[in-house]
């Protein structure tokens, strides 16, 4: 059983449930304010615990560089892999789900929808749907060697940028233009790729003077997008 926190709306006017995935080194409680705001829009909200966080073997020093480099992508891939188990536990059809993720959670949510084509919506905040592009940027910025051929094969298996665009999920991509943690280039690459494939169910909002955070303007835009699409 995957631990989770559930927010029930006082007036459940929406048929969809929003699943929120938090960022690296964070916790489910960090999503309390956003989950509360969205539940007030009539959605049920579920915030699952992510491996190596909260009660799931949390790492003692998650922001130490060697720890991040060892566990960041493993955490993303593991969470994508266990999604089948999670939706079986919550017993909600894919078409009734909207996935929202920030930072690492954005990577996770984007990875999941590339395998689950009936999911109704995706909101990716300061994450990336272009795994290889983002990892290459991480490695350049940290002075590491490029991915080996074997590592590239693993990334290609999960990378949404490498998957067929045969789903109809409504997508909202959001990114701070000054993001110094997760480069906006990953989102830009993903957006460019899928729009060139003729994908029309997507919006990409960028935010000047915003670093790696969720601004009040972003929250307002999330609410507006949900109201217009669901």
Automatic annotation (TrEMBL):
Domain Peptidase S9 prolyl oligopeptidase catalytic, by residue range, is 85-229
Specify the domain of life of the species encoding this protein.
Bacteria
Keywords, in A-Z order = Hydrolase
In terms of Pfam families, this protein maps to: Peptidase_S9
Single GO term (MF): hydrolase activity
Q: What is this protein called?
A: Alpha/beta fold hydrolase
